[in-house]
Amino acid sequence: MPEALDVTCPCCEAELKVDPETGAVVWHEKKKGPAADFDELVTRVQSQRSVLDEKFARSVQHTKRSGEILEKKFEEARKRAEQDPGGKPPHPFDNE
Fold first, then answer.
1. Backbone region of residue 66 per phi and psi (left: phi > 0; alpha: psi in -120 to 50; beta: other values)
2. In terms of C-beta density within 10 A (0-12 exposed, 13-18 middle, 19 or more buried), how is residue 19 classed?
3. DSSP 3-state assignment of 15?
4. pLDDT tens across 60-86, in order?
5. How far apart are the C-alpha atoms of 82 and 91, rounded to whole Å?
6. What is the dihedral of CA 31, 34, 40, 46, to 10 degrees?
C-alpha cells in the first residue's frame, strides 16, 4: 500500500495528508495566521454574533412552522383514517 502524500494547500497553507488510492484527505492541520489587532478581532466577533443571531431567529421560525405543518399533516391523516371503512391498513403480502 503506498504511503500517504503530504500536500500543502495553496489557499490557506494547511498541511494535508492525502490517500493516493482514494484521493481522500485522511488528515489535516490548519495553520494559524498571525494575530490581528484587538479592534479587528472585536469587530469580527461582533459580526459573527449578528450572523449567529440571524441564524437562530430563522431556526426558531422554522421550528414554529414545522409544528404547524406537522399538525396539519396529522389532521389530514386523522380525517383519512376516519373515512376509511376497513379501519385496518392493508397487509403488503396479502394478494387480495
1. alpha
2. middle
3. strand
4. 988 888 888 888 889 998 888 888 766
5. 19
6. 30
53 DSSP 8-state letter: H
- Compute the distance between CA of residue 88 and CA of residue 28 in angstroms, rounded to an integer: 55
pLDDT tens for residues 5-28?
Answer: 899 988 878 899 998 888 888 888
pLDDT given at position 62: 86
* Residue where the block lists cell 441564524: 55
Instruction: Give the CA-trace dihedral at 58, 64, 70, 71, to 10 degrees.
Output: -160
What integer pLDDT is reported at residue 85 of this predicted model?
67
**Vertex 32, ends 36 and 34: CA angle to 5°?**
30
